[in-house]
Amino acid sequence: MAKLEVDVEPGEVGFDADRLQRVGSHFRRYVDDGKLAGWTVAVARRGRVALLEHYGLADVEAQRPVVDDTMWRIYSMTKPITSVAALMLYERGAFELTDPVSRFIPEFADARVYAAGSAANPSTVPAVEPVRIWHLLTHTAGLTYGWHHAHAVDEVYRAKGFEFGTPRGMDLAGACAAWAGLPLMFQPGSEWNYSVATDVLGRVVEVASGKSLDAFLSDEVFGPLGMDDTAFWARPENLDRLAALYVVNPAGGLLRNGAMGDAATREPSFLSGGGGLISTAADYHRFTQMLARGGELDGARLLGPHTVAYMTRNHLPGGADLETFGRPLHAESTFRGVGFGLGVSVVTDAAAGKSVTHDGEFAWGGLASTAFYVDPVAEVTAMFFTQLMPSSAYPIRPQLRSLVNQALVG
């Protein structure tokens, strides 16, 4: 089991100790005000952990506190892991990034693109080029999520049972075949839209490797990195470690989301490479350190440093940012000065984004308000874990970044 503990005095790695304490002080107010049940935050520099703090409850109803080994649904923080798995296969020559997805999922050979009309009766045109693997890695494939509620194609997904998940009993291969038969929102490569693309990428990993996604991740990622507590579900012996899932109560406080929360307690038929994993702070710290070190940790090399550098640069056409090239995740989103790499967001212009960070910072977060970022310039990694939906409820992610960076003095 991976362990996470403070192993350096803040001042030894350039943090002002008093200013670093502002991180915890700020987020404790979220719990005290009833906005979050509890959380874990961890900040490291040059691989040394300068701050690790837990506060509040992992389960309000059971009065169970957040502790070192609390398990969290990381939802879309699964995406960088699946992207790393795909890039590992790319490094082995299993495919080119320009290969059509139909090479691995034949149903994508006849992709059609939405042109006009309602969700009940959309008109479509042929895709002018194939959906390619790099489209999946960059969310430019034209796929979507049913929960966006922003386009007719989103409604098509919901009508087919794809909103927060898949129809009961459907596996990954079946879901990918179904998505391939639905209209693309736009021509591949022409826009960015957050989507099931990384789930499709997980199926490419399966076909290219000859292993199920859970087996490949266990054998090739979690095992080598010592991420023993990361999986697609919490086994019965670990249920007392799994945090409860909450949503914002419009009347104030929190409401438990039992339906979605309980999904993590059963072995799934659908292995979601886009949002299905649970993990611990200690495990995900191992993953972030591997990326921060250029693909290697404690002698286990998953990727070459050139691949990590390529993964964490902006891949949007013409160097565009998500503000101009992407469709917003929600009305409150702002992605000015932020591009997208292969599975992670990438800061391209911190000044334009009005964010005190460095160009080159890469990051992502999850539906339940979890987040991580890696700042290669400052050599800093930070993670925040809680279980509140939606992730847009509070500005946790920009506040985490600002609070960490204001403490960095050397």
Give structural attributes.
410 residues; alpha+beta; 8-stranded antiparallel β-sheet; 3-stranded mixed β-sheet; 12 helices; 17 strands; 29% helix; globular
Explain this structure to me?
The protein has helices spanning 17-32, 78-91, 133-138, 152-159, 172-180, 197-209, 213-225, 258-262, 281-292, 305-311, 322-325, 396-406; strands spanning 38-45, 48-59, 64-65, 72-73, 112-117, 122-126, 246-248, 254-256, 278-279, 296-297, 300-301, 338-340, 345-347, 362-365, 371-375, 380-385, 388-389. It is an alpha+beta fold and 410 residues long. A hairpin with a 5-residue loop joins strand 7 (246-248) and strand 8 (254-256). Helix 2 runs parallel beside helix 6 (197-209). The longest helix is centred in the first third of the chain and has 16 residues, at 17-32. It is globular, with a radius of gyration of 20 Å.
Topology:
Blueprint: H1 17-32, E1 38-45, E2 48-59, E3 64-65, E4 72-73, H2 78-91, E5 112-117, E6 122-126, H3 133-138, H4 152-159, H5 172-180, H6 197-209, H7 213-225, E7 246-248, E8 254-256, H8 258-262, E9 278-279, H9 281-292, E10 296-297, E11 300-301, H10 305-311, H11 322-325, E12 338-340, E13 345-347, E14 362-365, E15 371-375, E16 380-385, E17 388-389, H12 396-406
Parallel strand pairs: 7-17
Antiparallel strand pairs: 1-2, 1-16, 2-3, 4-9, 5-6, 7-8, 10-11, 12-13, 13-14, 14-15, 15-16
Q: In DSSP terms, counting alpha (H) and pi (I) runs of 4 or more, how many helices?
A: 12
Please provide the count of β strands: 17
The succession of helices and strands, N to C, reads HEEEEHEEHHHHHEEHEHEEHHEEEEEEH
Task: Give the termini separation.
Answer: 33 Å
> How would you sum up the global shape?
globular
Task: Report low-confidence residues grouped into runs of 5 or more.
Answer: none
